[in-house]
Structure prediction request, 312 residues.
Amino acid sequence: MRIIRDFQSCPPESRNAAVALGNFDGVHLGHQSILNKAVSLAETENIPSAVMTFEPHPREFFAKDGKRLRISSFHDKVELFAGLGINTLFLVRFNARFASLSPTAFVDEVLCRELGVRHVVTGYNFAFGKGRAGDTAFLEAQAQQKGFGFTACPAVYSARGEAISSSAIRGFLTAGEVKKASALLGRPYTISGIVRRGQRNGHKLGFPTANVSLRNLFTPRYGVYAVRFRIADDKGWHNGVANLGIKPTFGHTEPLLEVHGFDMNRDLYGQRISVELVEFIREERRFDGMEALQIQIAADCGQARKILQGNI
Prediction:
């Protein structure tokens, strides 16, 4: 999949595409319906398929409060786009200049002049342009006037009858209900990142961990989880237990995911791992001493092994 950051140098093979527009945070089942529609239209019309998304997330740009919103990292989002068959990713730098574009200017300057779109696909509630003044009705009128196709995809509902949305997924993650979040995503909820060096407290306790920073990712409920994880370029999955939180026993303040792999003796520093949160086990809490913590970790490992045996 080609990634294009500068529309003014858009290559001919990426023009005249069927383009899906949106933030696509999490690339959940609702987003997948939009992306699949763009791919289907592209195949039918024998044109390229593309997605346009924004970096940083517009809500992050306007909020300025450091609140973590992203369900999936940019790296994971790109992999998911490619896996759905998208040919080109148009990555928009969301800044003050872009935010000030009127809906009409966005259509004229970006979609028509720079990209020469053949078809635009959005969700039913897509809004864009300065003050979010543009909507699907505006895009439909512009499409008819300027000669490109437009499709607004309807909402997608879960088996429980709820509209699938990034907000609903964040709500489930906040409650530690990772299975419900995964059902809306259409895949296991996963945190990925590069393993970094820590203070080796896990090694000292007899439970070495691979530490992954959450950076700007949305933070699920603090606590201990049964997990499965995969190391980059390694097709196999490994079982383990993980603590997600601030490690109050050690006085930390920055959220961190610490993964202990069962029956594993490998140096993972510097490698990318993908960690699937399978089930919440308990709340994170502070322990009075290392012995109490050690006993609890052993109990957590036992509980995680039982959970994961039922998820094979």
